Amino acid sequence: MEYDDIIVGAGSSGAVVASRLSEDPARSILLLEAGPDYQTVEQTPEDLRSGRIQSVVAHDWGFKAAALEGREIDYPRGKVTGGSSAVNSAIALRGVPEDYDEWAAKGNPEWSWAKVLPFFRKLEDDQDESGDFHGKGGPLPIRRPKDEELLREHAAFIEACACAGLPLSADFNDPESTGVGVWPRNIIDGVRISTAIAYLGRARHRLNLTIRPGCLVHRVLIEGGRAVGVEVECGGVLQRVYGKRVTLSAGAIVSPAILMRSGIGPRVHLEELGIAPVADLPVGQELIDHCMMGVIAVPKPGVADLTKPTVQAGARYTATGSSEFNDMQLIMSGNVDLSDYPDYLAIVGAPIAVSVLAGLQRPRARGKLTLTSADAHVQPRIDLDYTSDPEDLRRLIDGVRLAWKVAHEPAMAAVFERVAILTEEMMASDEALAEYVRGTVNTIYHPVATARMGPEGDAGAVVDERGRVRGIEGLWVADASIMPAIPRANTNLTCIMIGERVAEWMR
Known about the structure:
Layout: E1 2-8, H1 14-21, E2 29-32, H2 46-49, E3 64-68, E4 71-74, H3 97-105, H4 113-123, E5 124-126, E6 140-142, H5 152-163, E7 179-182, E8 187-188, E9 191-192, H6 195-198, E10 209-212, E11 215-223, E12 226-234, E13 237-248, H7 251-261, E14 264-265, H8 267-272, E15 279-280, E16 291-299, E17 313-317, E18 328-337, H9 342-348, E19 352-360, E20 368-370, E21 381-383, H10 390-407, E22 416-420, H11 424-427, H12 430-440, E23 442-443, E24 475-477, H13 492-506
Parallel strand pairs: 1-2, 1-13, 2-10, 5-6, 13-24, 14-15
Antiparallel strand pairs: 3-4, 7-17, 8-9, 11-12, 12-13, 16-19, 16-22, 16-23, 17-18, 18-19, 20-21
Helix pairs in contact: 1-13, 4-13, 10-12
């Protein structure tokens, strides 16, 4: 049979597209997911259901990435229905209006703040805030921890940031908000509400929606300049399935890899791998990611509890000497079991750590995603190139110094036994901190722009502003890949918004 729509990837965007398109009973939808599918909250394993901590082991693609030359890091991505929305820290944060107006200024007018705000409102059910900037009754519930729910270390962090001069913020999703406060999160009664729960949960009963887990898509089938289906491995058998439209929503790492295996990418690179080029497009050439590092501390006895939430509070602020509003975050990360990180365990000298991390939200560095093989079972090469831009390095050093200041405020003395690794002498030296940043900088798990949108004539664009792949009829991309710049926020909510926005155009 031929489906009306084949959607590859049931993650933060793909589950949304499938759910919205299947609202039309006359449309047949096939949703393919490489990972497993859990049909109810009760069937969902604890590592996915619990909103306490990120899940980066049991439902993960197992990618590695070069943070910078000579230094490899783990690069977790969710491999399950819900995608990375099923394994992340569930921070439901939007970028600032300037982020989306920048998208529009790059030749994508349908993505201005005024145009995307209705879709942010449509997706959410904000249980705390109301008014022009918040939605009620949408699929994704959002709430903020109450004072009585805050753990000691997170309450101390808020007090310490205020003492360090950061203003208090009651609502980080207010467009003008800055300072310190609690994160808005899609955690309800301790359960992480992924798009598998929020969107597919309300669509599974529809007879026109077929969800097939355990399906690894090798490539898109293209005939006469048109996408006609996909080649997919299911149960160890390579099969072909056909559709009138194919949408890649497998995320900013897997979607561009599928494009390149399909012959859509830089011609020279594809020919080196023996892949016949179909469309010479700059796939994977502008990878952008948020990165972080900061102050690691040993908690006082009785403070750390591995059964409690890791992320509750944080801060948005503008780096010293920066003209970009809210270009940095401070992230309070509690209760990290270092037994999973033996190198850090040896250095810190304690089994559990808490951290005040500085996160760069407006990186200037650009990485690259390339294939190492035409084999779908071989991971692509991910080069992040963190700190390659001097301004990125300067702001990260500035962030370490602010994190150090916050970690030594009197409020933190009640929860921190000692700060590890960093010393007063290191804090006084730009050179020592630069070395520290390069040696410890890590991902915040937000890759974007590997198949970015742009207008006709934009040499760096892979898709148009609606997500349609240039030069190939019937092929769309709808996920973080198409972002033309990275928002100043955790990217999950923006990915869900992209799913909502693109699905409306498709309908």
